[in-house]
Amino acid sequence: xxxxxxxxxxxxxxxxxxxxxxxxxxxxxxxxxxxxxxxxxxxxxxxxxxxxxxxxxxxxxxxxxxxxxxxxxxxxxxxxxxxxxxxxxxxxxxxxxxxxxxxxxxxxxxxxxxxxxxxxxxxxxxxxxxxxxxxxxxxxxxxxxxxxxxxxxxxxxxxxxxxxxxxxxxxxxxxxx
Length: 177
Hints:
Elements: E1 10-14, E2 17-23, E3 29-37, E4 43-50, E5 57-63, E6 73-82, E7 88-89, E8 95-103, E9 108-116, H1 124-140, E10 143-150, E11 154-161, H2 165-169
């Protein structure tokens, strides 16, 4: 996701999520990465938190045949989070996506950073509240369906399991402010 060049001090798996923890010089957890993958597709949903940033980084990663485009784009993001019973988990947080293409000898991908839609960014406190509300919704859900839209790309929908996210994230809430 973003810390993969650093050495992971600990890794864990719970249900559909994988966790990597990174420690500072004192041996304290200073960053974490959580990710899940769509079955049979090279499409990932990743969450990165670090004590160096007050905001979590949420991304959709598209590799190889899943790549949408080779130039940067601003995407509309629509999402629905469902709980274990299939009911929708309410979230007032509106998102947009910033697509960054990668085309190197080692990697061919699109990284879509999910961020607050511009109109919601009133102050640092409001941003913190919105990101915390989004994390709460994700942790409360069992599935998220994301739709990425752009006038030249059309609509692309992705469904990810959220099972295991809450259990892996709860012990490290302080890192994911």
